[in-house]
């Protein structure tokens, strides 16, 4: 058990270092030795957990999917849960280097053969489910095309992330997400729902605090967090 | 003059090839010899026009800025001009490999030291001017923060471009731009203006046809087009 625990810590240290290295140098610019050196590990320790740079990158990419949903508490207004998922993701993205590396990989269109669709499709599916639930609760206008909006939210969030990254090093990401929602939601949500939504920029931080997950826990996200929440 | 003309053609052939190579391999994955080989030129011809890969990439990046605005005809509803600029850019981006390479470079966050801010800032400035003019004509709600919307339009367009690229190889880009505008404009434009806007997905194609610029002229954009329009 102690050995399992140690192995998991080693693997997580590699993923953490990989996130930072991919974020800084991109997939093509990163080397396996960059990663294990930064993690303070040996080549042998690296290849015990990962077979190649591509294998490592696939796992870094999957972090966006596996850890995306936590910890969204149920709300009376279903659309608030969708808003919360976006703000929590934005809040984490401003702080978690592993997640930053993961997002960078999915945006990078170099020579690599990574499956970049997966994190986007996972988020589209997530939004589609949340919008359908909101629709079932009568929260959306009847003309809303939930599939279209699910994709529009993913694309617009991705764009906010990129512009925030390029212009301010992600410092204003949650402010951009708030502006996006303020312009997008009025064409989707009926007024009675709109008036009850909390779309302030610090929403993600408050949601995490309410769930008992502090910001410090996000540098980096602790191993197995998705299992325990 | 014939010599100048030939030099311009050579330079344009290099930029065209560079766009395609950067689009396929990213900045780090591309080499100078990839570029001049694809253009069917010699190393010497390349270095007559560009001092380095970075120099070349800077010029490819600047294509987004230098050629962005054409050919937007004046409209009675000023907001339509902003819409048209977006649709024309989207339409070109689906076809022009030089522009695709340029956009890829600005989205890629590898090890390179390129100035990725410039094309985004240029578009933000462009939108800000267009929104200010629309506002002066009474087309916008009084609560609209034009600076915020100018950036939101750039970020959301960028996101639409990325998702379209990843999911469909950019085949549905103009459809995504239409969906974005259908959800964004109702919170910005007063109803009388909104009702008169043309935001159909084929708007860019029609604007270009009206200006006498065919689609064939965009593979690649002919040299000096910005000067003559």
UniProtKB/TrEMBL annotation, chains A, B:
For this entry, the protein name equals Transcriptional regulator, AcrR family
Pfam families, alphabetically?
Answer: TetR_N
Cell membrane recorded as keyword: no
**Can you tell which superkingdom this protein's organism belongs to?**
Bacteria
Keywords from the named record: DNA-binding, Transcription, Transcription regulation
Residues annotated as DNA-binding are 31-50
Looking at the record, the residues that make up the HTH tetR-type domain are: 8-68
- Origin organism is Streptomyces globisporus
């Amino acid at each position: 058990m102690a050995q399992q625990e140690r192995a998991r810590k080693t693997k997580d240290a590699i993923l953490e270092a990989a996130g930072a290295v991919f974020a800084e140098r991109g997939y093509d610019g990163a080397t396996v030795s960059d990663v294990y050196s930064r993690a303070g590990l040996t080549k042998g320790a690296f290849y015990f957990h990962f077979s190649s740079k591509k294998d490592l990158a696939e796992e870094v990419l999957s972090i966006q999917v596996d850890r995306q949903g936590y910890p969204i508490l149920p709300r009376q207004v279903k659309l608030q849960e969708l808003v919360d998922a976006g703000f929590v993701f934005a809040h984490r993205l401003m702080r978690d280097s592993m997640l930053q590396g993961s997002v960078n990989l999915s945006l990078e269109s170099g020579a690599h053969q990574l499956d970049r669709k997966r994190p986007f499709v996972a988020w589209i599916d997530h939004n589609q489910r949340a919008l359908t639930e909101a629709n079932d609760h009568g929260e959306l206008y009847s003309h809303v095309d939930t599939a279209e909006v699910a994709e529009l939210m993913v694309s617009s969030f991705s764009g906010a992330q990129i512009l925030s990254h390029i212009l301010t090093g992600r410092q204003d990401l949650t402010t951009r997400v708030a502006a996006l929602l303020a312009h997008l939601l009025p064409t989707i949500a009926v007024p009675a729902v709109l008036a009850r939504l909390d779309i302030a920029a610090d929403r993600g931080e408050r949601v995490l605090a309410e769930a008992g997950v502090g910001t410090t826990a996000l540098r980096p996200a602790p191993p197995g967090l998705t299992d325990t929440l």
